[in-house]
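Can't attach files on this board, so I'm pasting raw text. These are the components:
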Amino acid sequence: MNFFEDKLMLEKYDIQLRYGENPHEKAYVFGRPQFELLHEGKQLSFNNILDAEAAWSLTRNLEVVGGGCAVVKHQTPCGVSYLRDGDTIADKTRCVASALSADGESSYGGILATSFEMTLDIARSLKTFLEVIVAPAFEDEAVEYLSKKKVRLIRPLNYTSYVGKIAFDSLIISERRFDGHPELLFGEPFDLKEVTFALIVAEATRSNAIVIVKDGVTVGIGGGQPSRKRSAWIATTLAGRNAEGAIAASDAFFPFTDGLDILIKAGVKCVVAPLGSIRDENVLTFAKENGITFYSSPIRVFRH
Amino acid sequence: MNFFEDKLMLEKYDIQLRYGENPHEKAYVFGRPQFELLHEGKQLSFNNILDAEAAWSLTRNLEVVGGGCAVVKHQTPCGVSYLRDGDTIADKTRCVASALSADGESSYGGILATSFEMTLDIARSLKTFLEVIVAPAFEDEAVEYLSKKKVRLIRPLNYTSYVGKIAFDSLIISERRFDGHPELLFGEPFDLKEVTFALIVAEATRSNAIVIVKDGVTVGIGGGQPSRKRSAWIATTLAGRNAEGAIAASDAFFPFTDGLDILIKAGVKCVVAPLGSIRDENVLTFAKENGITFYSSPIRVFRH
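---
Top answer:
Structure tokens for the assembled complex are below.
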């Protein structure tokens, strides 16, 4: 007997998806997805919805630092930016441009989510092809303008975030709660908003996650790896010279000094990570000796 | 109103998980997970179940090439090997050792799944600390021996694989079906079993996925990246000289020649990938000109 077929089919919601995770696989939706589809330039797919959820969950957390926007590909962020300047349309347009150009190569065909209204001005500024745009509100003129394109426009409704997956014919669910308020452990203080921003992006990046941030934008995202050291290598390689003087966030503690060493050698000057390793003292001494600033996160922020 | 709280709570299954994806998050299980927990050296966690499902789904697909085993960390494979020699215990022990040493650094604290019975001999050969061992059968002596350790032992029951996640307060499900029988397009034929093996591992690796295989074992796994080119860079860097003469699988078509170029420059001599790009002709001509063998996969094998 199959749990999903037996028990859940009753709750199947009548939404047509193009196909499942791949064209030869069927998709099913249980429960009414809490969003309004303002435009469907091309039929919504399984991957579109999950990408949109990934982008929107991250963007919602950005409210903690005053809002921002995220570009997601394959359910993983490739460019994220927060509103550093203010709330004029020019600031917001700049924020979107920063997120899209943070990893310009990957942004093509991406999913953009913003924490602010999608205005006609912002819509007109979008030069990259996007699969989906997610925003809490859309100007009528923006919908009209974007409706000429193949994009899907999603306006999420209010709902509580959960993460969960199917395993062994059952559904395994976890709360998704970001309560990460970093505290300065030692070193010269950095902009706390930017430190928190780095941690928020790490929360949305597949573990092991290392995220490097500079001037309000991600410059190197390493994730989805079986070792933290490897994510540090990916993030610093992508960041290149932008790692110099930057802030790096880790989604969990450093089990050894090796991952931290890669960040420091690349020029990172501030690290935020939870503690809890049996080698914490080692790791913290190493950070201190290398003259970097260390913020501790009260929570681990794994996402898979 | 929350779909999960309203509708599904009725089906909540009384299994105690240590905590959710992170210690500050609660976990819930809906439906009875289809496995027997033969030993729980440490309380089962949310991440354990999802890791076990990832390892087991991959291992089940390995039946297509005669069985094998997989080591998973953070829901992504880090070492996979198939049974090339035969079915003696020595062959199986060697297969497990190959998978564990394929990425020895990452295997520590991993989840091991085998397609064959866990015997006392195999159990005794395990020198790496493992969080979970998944097998279709366990010798009584193996359970007794392993029960002295902190490991969890899982024997899956029969069930149909689905993938799916929670998004926008609903559950989005897809079938998970591997029907990938690669066909030779051009070039000198390679061992079809090994070509299929590479594709099976790519199916279990987060998209974009590039998997390099040599002599029955993975030597470089690149995945969880927003660009295929980047996964090719990760896989070839990890493979190093082992990429020479090796087979590489891609979970989707190459949109440009750049990713393929990285593989060829590293020494890969055979590639398996689905087609479907508007630049297929370009990509295939490039492969031909570089003298590599190309197998086409009838299906795309994204997993996220």
